[in-house]
Amino acid sequence: MLMAPTVPTAHSLMPVNQRPDLVFVRGAGAHLFDREGRRYLDWVQGWAVNCLGHSPAVVAQALSAQAATLINPGPAFYNEPAMELAALLTQHSCFDHVFFGNSGAEANEGAIKLARKWGQLHKDCAFEIITFGNSFHGRTLATMSASGKAGWDTIFAPQVPGFPKAVFNDLDSVRALVGPDTVAIMLELTQGEAGVIPADTAFLRGLRALCDTHGLLLIVDEVQTGCGRTGALFAYEHYGIEPDIMTLGKGLGGGVPLSALLAKKACSCFEAGDQGGTFCGNPLTCAVGLAVVRSLLADGFLESSRSISAQLKQGLVEISQELHLGEVRGRGALLALELGCDIGAKVVTLASERGLLLNAPRAHCLRFMPALNSSADEVSEGLGLLRETLAAALA
Ligand SMILES: *Cc1c(COP(=O)(O)O)cnc(C)c1O
248-259: per-residue pLDDT in tens? Predict the structure, then answer.
């Protein structure tokens, strides 16, 4: 019997997320296209993942060239893209060693394991990692336990122990938690899910000093802030300090699943067998990472991204003043606008009806994560749509 062609539906997918009734079939740079042929300016970009926009040529080329050459020799063997990408990342950061993973959570799991191992070797088996209220580190059991999201302490109880929570940007609250079992402090340099809250310079420098005094490791989760998102290659560069451990994800693969755990030699203490994974450091994703990081490092790229971000920030400030909204905050292409009331979800829906994709990490604020290579015209287009949407939402 001949079956009529059917349009795919979501009924066989686990309902893990509330999604709008849109199905995207194509992406190009700053824009997405749904299967009705509608075009959207995308200021979510896969949650700050597509740093070069949708389906950039460098990523497509790296993928197809590497796919035709070598996809998977297996993690028991070296491959050239992984070695090259690790060398590039260490050359442009303060770190010496890299382990590649497939997700931000996996990189953070690795950071947690590395800190615990270091504690066993050098600090009397200290294992506690101080993390922060409202933080987000991923969705595995350990990274959920490290996260400070409301409700996450009980949802899949029992938690993984060893993650006392301090208050972000409050050095005294961290000091109060340091004890004989403390091995590390882990934080996002801008808390993204919390609503784009940057760490203060004095706070981060204070954490560095606290770590030096007590012999603790400073772990920065740059899964969201890394790879050019805040205007520097890595956000820690804004602060004039060096962390001991850093994790990357999201932007590193420009849309393909790739993450990294980076460590200074002094704390890079994994021995053979301690860490690994079937797909970790595979040449397919590492070749893409290489193409992405080379693009970010190309002459003038970050500079031009910073000027586009400044245009966006200025436009948000003007909209906020005109419509009597709240604070505009954040760095580079990771910005937030306070709405003054809980209309975030409504604004997201109204904006998507007008062809603008937005994210509201909290009911009272919007988060902006455009492609780092957006054009001035695209930013103007988005600001126009946003202004219209907000005016309608407030009317
Ligand atoms: C997205 C994110 C993660 C988790 O990354 P996944 O790839 O979803 O596992 C961890 N930390 C931060 C700061 C993030 O923004």
Answer: 999 999 999 999
